[in-house]
Amino acid sequence: MHVLEAGFETKGRPCVLLLHGFPELAYSWRKVMPALAARGYHVIAPDQRGYGRTTGWSAEYDGDLAPFRLTNLVRDVLGLVYAFGYRHVDAVVGHDFGSPVAAWCALIRPDVFRSVVMMSAPFAGPPALPFDTVDKPAMPPKDDPVRRDLAALPRPRKHYHWYYSTREANADMHRAPQGLHDFLRAYYHHKSADWTGNKPYPLSAWSAEELAKLPTYYVMDLDKTMAETVAEEMPDGAAISANRWLPDSELAYYSAEYRRTGFQGGLQWYRCGTSGTFDAELQTWADRRIEIPSAFIAGRQDWGTYQRAGAFEAMQTRACGNMILCELIEGAGHWVQQEQPDSVNRLLLQFLEATRAGHPEPARVP
Known about the structure:
Elements lengths: L2 E4 L8 E5 L13 H6 L3 E5 L23 H14 L7 E5 L2 H11 L7 E4 L26 H6 L5 E3 H5 L4 H6 L5 H11 L17 H4 L7 E3 L4 H6 L5 H6 L5 H14 L2 H12 L3 H4 L11 E6 L11 H9 L3 E7 L6 H4 L1 H16 L10
Parallel strand pairs: 2-3, 2-4, 4-5, 5-8, 8-9
Antiparallel strand pairs: 1-3, 6-7
Helix pairs in contact: 2-3, 7-11
């Protein structure tokens, strides 16, 4: 595992682990790590399985998906914590697809991960198990008609999760007609607060009619690739020059890494979810809540908070039993820790210091 570190100069510091999402890397935490290290933390941010300079995974579309399932991603994180000589960390923080990994870390090993921060992707809890079925006829699994219904809309659409699960998705982005760098520029712009169309609000249901209200980076036109979708919102040269949260020199790091690796490693995570292959394993934790101190942080202009109807509310009322902070940051879209790092750092430190009061001893194993 390739990791970035801050605060490694002295021993005995409490540890904080930062988990990135898609299509990002450990580098996405570059504006957070120094602030946490300056307050006495040892901060570790890995390139997760399937990303960047971390090795030992297969990018074959027809390869084994099992290594990319959530429980194994938790095992990766646990192995990393142990490799650095910690029996526990003060917090695991996850953004985007790193958010469910962080949530499952908290659910499966609360003894190791003493608090959790989920960013930009609410956690609604584990999948349910059928209940009270002894004297009732067995019911077949419910069919989710959303994909079919989206395609049948007057303006035919498709959900990006299922697009990301197709064989073509990696090549569509890796070999984008506009070039990979410009593809990423448009993708990051489209999901940021810089795109003025990002004015999110709760959806009332998981239905084609409601999902069609989402921007096209979530619910795409049926006949378009993601590269074609975001190209329609490519910022002009003046907007790119004025961008301070992701100047071209920093975007170049992402584009160089993804040009080398492609996107399939990250796309395998989506395929695990859409296939349903590993749902039964996750039902092992049915009805279990996150009981350690938890927080949620997202941009106020981020549709990710609401893309699955009811998840934001379920996280606060059912999935987490000890949620002590829930904040939407003005002026940030989906890339909240890059767009508004000062606000994120303030909230993270506020949360960490509130939770650390209950665990004051050093966390590193001699």
